[in-house]
Design brief:
heterodimer; A: 287 residues; mainly alpha; ABC transporter involved in vitamin B12 uptake, BtuC; two-stranded antiparallel ribbon; 11 helices; 2 strands; 3% strand; globular; B: 261 residues; alpha/beta; Rossmann fold; 10 helices
Chain lengths: 287, 261
């Protein structure tokens, strides 16, 4: 059994999950919003990447920079215009709002790109030899950029003045307010950051996985599994959970085939909910 | 008699509430309150549990929507101004209850209070150094997690954090709550020192007679309204205030009110 290949493959996949799950968890931790459109941000980002690179012939690196910014801008506007107005309402309102945006994005994407799969032939198509293993270039680049992005955001949250402001809003909004921090502004930036991370995830997966407008829900449910196993609201938890589930999925697919391999994630998620609902590092669901 | 420290006659009060009404949800709690807080003075707000004391200052601090009436800061109408702008007007607030970020260090808590100072590390550092002189207990605890400190130390940290931007006015919501008698004395002495140094102090307190001894001015609230107003000494001497709100009674009243509510 090629244990090392599988392990490395799982970690590489986990890197992408980490970027996606960290953004989702950041939004949840700071705003208490479960963003059902998160997967669709990723799908649209992947499709825009295909259009930029295949349609317009731009270099892939342009997409890596531009697409996350586009998604971040969209996230900022969505939060500032819609979510902000219902921030003090019951949780179900923000759930429905993000669900509505999810549906609009999926249908809009079908209108623009059609319903079929689109890939990025020839981009990062080579392979790299590392420690005697042959690794796909696209997966390796995706992993390195995704982990750099996730760790970069973590550093920003822990070490910068505005990052601390974000954390203080997550932990004690009233204390943040009396310290002169605008909660609205923090929420706008947080949502933009989370959307941008989903956007980067979409760009990075485009060379490896073919994208279609309905890709989002498939990825979102995996991201939920990751943050439940890692711990809702916990940033390191999301990273650890992502790597763990990435490895689990790859090993499971190898042993039992891809159908059961994916299902394994959700078995682990259910087990976590039953046995350790706060997750590995989590603060538990808010009451 | 406590001497009043008079503001210049023409200067408007640093903070003024006019016919303020507010509450939670659609339940009215504060029903038409007028208060004036003069510069440099310590003002106490006392009253039984549920009188609306904390609610009044929450609204004054911009944390609660004002239903009607006005909040003025040095004459400017700030009724609709969001709460995070109060510090820029020199008005700081020390909340009741969960008063520090337990998972952050003492230094990080202070830095949070210094958020409006911007990203200039030197200004933040200078502010922390100034406060360590005022609160020596914090000096050797900078790297400690705030959650690991005693209740009294956390209260000191909360007050110090509110003073990071060197505000002219500080509003405190029951700073003695849950503290040992020794720490209550320490906190009240600290408030007295700060007031003597020129800080305008507005303090809501359950320990009524103790706070009126050191406050120059006081308001007695009952069921969402101001019942009495006067100098600390006058209120302490007032027979009616004494009978209902001071001495042994208020603790008994408070206890029964807590038990009911």
């Amino acid at each position: 059994m090629p244990v090392w290949e599988l392990l490395v493959g799982g970690i590489l996949l986990g890197g992408l999950y980490a970027l996606m799950a960290c953004g989702l968890n950041l939004i949840f931790g700071v705003m208490g919003v479960i963003n059902f459109a998160h997967g669709d941000f990723l799908a649209v980002a992947a499709l825009i990447t295909v259009s930029l690179v295949v349609g317009l012939g731009l270099p892939f690196i342009v997409a890596v920079v531009v697409v996350p910014l586009l998604l971040a801008a969209f996230g900022y506007v969505f939060q500032a215009v819609i979510l902000r107005r219902i921030a003090n309402g019951p949780v179900i309102m923000s759930v429905l709002a993000t669900f509505a945006v999810s549906t609009i994005i999926v249908n809009g994407a079908i209108l623009v790109w059609g319903g079929s799969y689109r890939g990025l032939p020839g981009v990062l198509g080579g392979s790299v030899e590392l420690f005697g293993l042959h690794l796909s270039e696209s997966r390796l680049v995706a992993f390195v950029v995704a982990m750099t992005g996730s760790l970069g955001v973590w550093w920003f949250l822990r070490r910068t003045r505005f990052g601390r402001a974000i954390r203080s809003v997550a932990q004690a909004p009233e204390l943040a307010t009396i310290s002169g921090i605008s909660i609205d502004r923090v929420r706008n930036v947080t949502f933009a950051l989370g959307a941008g991370m989903a956007g980067l995830g979409g760009v990075l997966m485009a060379p490896t996985f073919a994208a279609d407008p309905q890709l989002g829900s498939r990825f979102l449910i995996k991201a939920f599994a990751v943050i439940i196993v890692g711990g809702m609201g916990s940033y390191p938890g999301a990273m650890a959970g992502a790597l763990l589930l990435g490895v689990l999925e790859v090993f499971g697919s190898y042993w039992f085939g891809p159908t059961i391999g994916s299902a394994l994630l959700f078995l682990v998620m259910l087990a976590t909910l039953l046995v350790r609902p706060q997750g590995l590092f989590g603060i538990g669901l808010r009451t | 008699m406590q001497p009043d420290i008079p503001a210049a006659p023409s200067a408007p009060p640093v903070l003024e509430l006019q016919q303020l009404r507010t509450g939670y949800g659609d339940v009215p709690v504060v029903q038409g309150v007028d208060m004036r807080f003069a510069a440099g003075r310590m003002t106490a707000i006392i009253g039984s549990n549920g009188a609306g004391k904390s609610t009044v200052i929450k609204a004054a601090a911009g944390l609660l929507k004002v239903w009607s009436g006005r909040v003025l800061a040095a004459g400017a109408d700030i009724t609709r101004e969001p709460g995070h702008r109060r510090l820029a007007r020199g008005i700081a607030y020390v909340p009741q209850g969960r008063i520090v970020l337990p998972e952050m260090t003492v230094r990080e808590n202070l830095e949070l209070g210094g958020y409006p100072l911007g990203s200039d590390r030197r200004r933040v550092k200078a502010a922390i150094e100034r406060l360590v002189v005022l609160f020596p207990v914090l000096g050797d605890r900078m790297a400690q997690l705030a959650g690991n400190m005693s209740g009294g130390e956390q209260q000191m940290l909360a007050i110090a954090r509110a003073l990071m931007t060197d505000p002219a006015t500080v509003i405190l919501d029951e700073p003695s709550l849950g503290l040992s008698p020794k720490f209550v004395d320490i906190v009240f002495t600290k408030l007295q020192e700060l007031s003597a140094a020129g800080l305008t102090v507005i303090v809501v307190e359950q320990k009524a007679s103790k706070i009126l001894e050191i406050a120059q001015h006081g308001y007695v609230m009952h069921t969402g309204r101001v019942l009495f107003e006067g100098s600390g000494a006058d209120l302490l001497a007032d027979e009616q205030v004494k009978r209902v709100f001071l001495g042994e009674m208020p603790d008994a009243l408070a206890a029964s009110a807590t038990a009911e509510g």
